[in-house]
Design a protein that fits this description.
This protein is of the alpha+beta class and about 375 residues long. The chain has a domain at about 85-125 and about 205-370: paralog of FGE (formylglycine-generating enzyme), CATH 3.90.1580. It has nine helices and 14 strands. It has helices at about 5-15, 50-55, 60-70, 130-140, 145-150, 160-165, 205-215, 225-230, 370, and strands at about 85-90, 95, 115, 120-125, 150-155, 175-180, 260, 265, 295-300, 310-315, 325, 345-350, 360, 365. The chain has a four-stranded mixed sheet. A three-stranded antiparallel sheet has the order 1-4-14, with helices on one face. Strands 2-3-10 form a three-stranded mixed sheet, with helices on one face. Strand 7 and strand 8 form a beta hairpin. The termini are far apart. The model is unreliable at about 1-40, about 50-60 and about 70-75 (pLDDT under 50). The chain binds 2-acetamido-2-deoxy-beta-D-glucopyranose and calcium ion (2 copies).
């Protein structure tokens, strides 16, 4: 049976609005899921896992295998490229999570709630292709996109040859196409490679892949609260890590979509697709780069949109769910489409989903031992 028609039905729903993964119709009230919502950005395209589960072959064996061997591995191996796995200390403190002026109400951006977060460490950069390759070289880890044999790419970035083979598009977000052979090593399809972009963020990594990598690095994913706290720095109630202006000092501070989405990308910020993880100024006083923009970043939390206004200490999100929270927006975000390159903004995907604009960075309670001995 060809799985795509059903996948597409589900994707259409997901694309159109923040709906339940398994629902074929939007579950949140039709008014929030209009069929032609021009603001829909395809942020939440997800795999329909039930189709793959039926075939019974989707055990994450590689994750388990690597976990057993983790202790024998030395993550800080010698390389001939500059490492970007350094972490910054995020001192504990409190902040207002979310916003009372949500742009996407259905995303659960609000209400604002008082949250305390313990001190932790966060990767200064998004995980790069080079860092991810070290992990794969050491463990033979196979990502979920490789296991499935496909991943989501925006058609603009796909070659004519690859485009010819694509028979489906996502209704309401026709630029999203499932591409056979797209994975972290082939971000734009089988005829692309990461050779020239080893210092760019790794893409097409599912939440499960991200967890596996972070564990191997003796790190973990940040919670949504940690991520947002780190994003906001010491700024209260601002849109971006540095404040409210998009381009302070007439400079570009992030990699987003300039021009007219999805038809023209003027790359005003210098990048039509991803930028190196080290690009752009530090986004706030913590010294973090590309929290906002470049690649979306997975967090450890399950997705939910109802938040109580009670104050919380180190919240970890709902106990269960269908989707995981991702933060920060990507190089595909434009103000008119997917205006989610804000600290309070959020979106979601199923834990086995992967896409050309989705990566991650890791967190840790303690600075890993190998980093004590290296320059940050
Ligand atoms: C991974 O292994 C390949 C093949 O041995 C090698 O060419 C490449 O440099 C390695 N990658 C890293 C990041 O060390
Ligand atoms: Ca850009
Ligand atoms: Ca980012």
């Amino acid at each position: 049976m060809d799985p795509w028609p059903r996948i597409l039905q589900v994707m259409i729903c997901l694309v159109l609005a923040r709906c339940d993964v398994s629902a074929e119709k939007c579950s949140k009230g039709e008014s929030e899921c209009p069929n032609d919502d021009p603001k829909s950005c395809g942020c939440s395209i997800s795999r329909d896992t039930s189709i793959y589960k039926q075939s019974g072959d989707l055990k994450l064996e590689s994750v388990d295998r690597y976990r057993q061997t983790k202790d024998k591995l030395t993550p800080a191996s010698k390389t001939d490229f500059p490492r970007t796995h350094g972490m910054v200390n995020i001192p504990g403190g409190s902040f207002f999570m979310g916003t009372n002026e949500p742009i996407f109400v259905a995303d659960g951006e609000g209400p604002e709630r008082f949250v305390r977060v313990n001190a932790f460490y966060l990767d200064k950069y998004e995980v790069s292709n080079a860092e991810f390759e070290l992990f794969v070289n050491a463990t033979n880890y196979k990502t979920e996109a490789e296991t499935f044999g496909n991943s989501f790419v925006m058609d603009t970035y796909v070659s004519e040859d690859v485009k010819k083979k694509i028979k489906q598009a996502v209704q309401g977000a026709p630029w999203w196409v499932p591409v056979d052979g797209a994975d972290w090593k082939h971000p734009y399809g089988e005829d692309s490679s990461t050779k020239e972009i080893m210092d760019h963020p790794v893409l097409h990594t599912s939440w499960n892949d991200a967890v596996a990598y972070c564990e191997w690095m003796t790190k973990r994913l940040p919670t949504e609260a940690e991520w947002e706290y780190a994003c906001r720095g010491d700024k209260v109630g601002r849109l971006f890590p540095w404040g409210n202006k998009v381009n302070p000092k007439e400079e570009h501070w992030m990699n987003i979509w300039h021009g007219e989405f999805p038809n023209s990308n003027t790359a005003d910020d210098g990048y039509e697709t991803t930028a190196p993880v080290t690009a752009f100024p530090k986004q706030n006083k913590f010294g973090l780069k590309n929290m906002i923009g470049n690649a979306w970043e997975w967090t450890s939390d399950w997705w939910g949109t109802q938040h109580s206004t009670e104050s919380k200490d180190n919240p970890m999100g709902p106990d269960r769910g269908a989707d995981k929270v991702k933060k920060g927006g990507s190089f595909m975000c434009h103000e008119t489409y997917c205006y989610r390159y804000r600290c309070a903004a959020r979106s979601q995907n199923t834990p086995d989903s992967s896409a050309v604009n989705l990566g991650f960075r890791c967190a840790s309670n303690k600075l890993p031992k190998y980093l004590h001995m290296e320059d940050p």
